[in-house]
Design goal:
3 domains, alpha+beta, 386 residues
Length: 386
Amino acid sequence: MNALVSAAPIAFAVLLLVPAADTPIAQELTLRIAAPTETTYLSGPSKLVAIIEPQSRLSEVRQVIFFADGKQVCAVTRPPFNCDWDAGDHVIEHVIRVVAEVANAPRLVENVRTQGVVVTEAVDVDVVQVTVVVSDGNRFVRGLQQKDFRIYDDDREQKISNFADEKLPLDLIVAIDMSMSMKGSLEAVKEAAKSFLAGLKPSDQVTLLGFNDNITTLARRTTDKEYLAHAIDRLAPWGGTALYDVTIGALDLLGRQKGRRSVVLFTDGDDQSSHATLDAAIARAESSDATIYAIGQGRAVRASDLQDLLQRLARISGGRAFFPPDANKVQKDFEDILEDLRNQYMISYPVPDNRRDGAWHRIRIEVAGGKYQVRARQRYQFSARH
């Protein structure tokens, strides 16, 4: 009898530790800034987006307040918790802060710092650098030496101060359009892009950008091909297309420094969201010594105006544009670009004193007395402040 009495309290205690099966457990409210992210470049009209979960508790949210660089932008009292804000003309760092006021609970607070474009200072601003590809009409011409080249600045021959072949390391930016209009071809593009990057030399540095309404850095300057492949796998289509913005942003990221630099753009070419103008993108491409390669998909395969745009961007930089009829043929175009990059020469010559006038000056290159075909940038511009 005593044993039964002493065991009863123990059994009762155990029952208290087991919650009833139908007792609801309240899920904690969380706040997340969906846009922009830490890898976003902001400029011009931008959308700030906050996500609060779970949705079943949104009635407890009194208001969500958005701050940009310490100043309140707007306050939203019901979902969706979005806010329109003008980030200005320059692509600089911004601090976005979101505060959610919740009934009978502490405030939820999140912060994000966006990216700013840092233009690499020139290693040598006293030279004009030109990337050159030489062919005989059918094949690339390799093994050329400095003595085989003649370079002219406004039709006046210049003395070549530096000459290098494809052994010079490459600094490459790959920018992939991840707008909603790319939905049908993005998966094939991702696979082709991974194969393309795998074919680069171990010393080649790559920065991977995704772009739609915004520009997102998917992978910072790296030689790690596995890391780049994982970054590509994360691409998902949404939003519009900001082609002009990404062209300018990519060229600014490359800056002006010694070495071979190129940009590979994959896009449908149908710009819907850029803050920059087409003229600004063209001018930036002409003033850069980086080579642009463009692969057009979507509407660009059929629309002549979009093809003209991408061809122009590529041609003025000494690059090429491709328009594969379907996404499954993208691999071949990436292989052609890779072959191009393997057959580049780099030529430099001192900037003539009278060329520091902010005007455009023509570049013309002859190889082996005009025996071969040459592809290179067509002109340059230097201001007195360079």
